[in-house]
Task: structure prediction
Amino acid sequence: MERSFALLGAFTAHRRSLGLGELSRLTGIPKSSTLRLARTLVGLGVLERTGDGDFVIGLRLWEIASLAPQMQGLRAVAMPYMEDLNLVTRQHVLLAVRDGDDALLVERLSAPAANPILYRVGGRLPLHSTGVGQVLLAFAGFEERNAYLARPWRTEPEGVPIDARDLRRTLTAVRRDGYATVVRPRPGPLVSVAAPITGTDETVVAALSVVVPTGDDVRAIVPAVRAAARAISRGLGPGGVNAAGAVT
Result:
């Protein structure tokens, strides 16, 4: 089982297709064992084989992952509000949850003419330099937040070092104001406006954001994002559908 997960973990956003030799090298598993495990996973639909013999993640894995209770309930409640924001802004609307030191993107709606962004569903976003990430970090527990801030971080993908004192002040402002704004220069000048989503016990369980060109009027976007996040929170709270997809 551990070896199977090691094979799956070798795939990333930048390594979507891997040959047998690459899988063996990246995981440290002998080629013969790698081939046997990969064939088993192909038979289960978890991996698929391309025409040139490489391996890619199979649709069955996405199907299984979509059944995660937390994602089902959250996405079901959030989708109508995300669609409204997408219609109004004609750009990108993101929904993310925290997973360790990352924000995990669980849904993204993008208008056809929206500016390009680096984020994809299932991808991981840094907590310290993205809108949804800063929201999730700002409302994390005190000890968790301090442990994160104690480590050196850089903006991604620019690689610019981040001053922990500046980041701490930013997170304080996010908790005070109830939203985050992050300006990103790549792949184009963009600004992310993000707000927290709370669950049944009023703790932050997710973050909602809109990513628009820097020329857009952020002051007009902030109330819309916050209102949508509050509406989703009400849907997840008492009398609504909780993050596990059950009526409360």
Summary: Residues 69-89 form the longest helix (21 residues).
